[in-house]
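Students often ask why inverse folding is considered easier than folding. One informal answer: many sequences map to the same fold, so there is more than one right answer. In these notes we will look at a single instance of the problem. The structure comes first.
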């Protein structure tokens, strides 16, 4: 059963990424729409999935993906995580996800500063 749950989560993440990269499928404010066009240009799809996995599934992230995340910027990171965390089936735990998001950001900044 855990395997099915993981598959469902992966499908959700892929759908969320599609919505994030194709604003016509999502309902976002004008400011967020402009961010989609400028964010996530330097992050590979694998790193984007890793970032989402850290926040929503307690996975780990590589140093290389941390560097990409920090290079892209905190506003872009916050926009992606907040967008996903506000989905109806996740919103009950939004505060937890935002806390994990901040912890990930701080971790990645510390990794980037030591390199």
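Output (designed amino acids):
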């Amino acid at each position: 059963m855990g395997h099915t749950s993981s598959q469902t989560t992966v499908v959700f993440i892929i759908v969320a990424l599609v919505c994030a990269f194709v604003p016509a499928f999502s309902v976002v404010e004008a400011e967020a729409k402009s961010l989609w066009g400028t964010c996530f240009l330097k992050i590979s799809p694998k790193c984007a999935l890793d970032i989402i996995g850290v926040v929503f599934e307690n996975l780990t992230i590589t140093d290389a993906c941390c560097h990409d995340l920090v290079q892209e910027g905190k506003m872009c990171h916050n926009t992606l995580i907040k967008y996903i965390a506000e989905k109806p089936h996740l919103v009950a735990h939004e505060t937890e996800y935002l806390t994990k998001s901040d912890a990930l950001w701080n971790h990645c900044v510390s990794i980037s500063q030591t390199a």
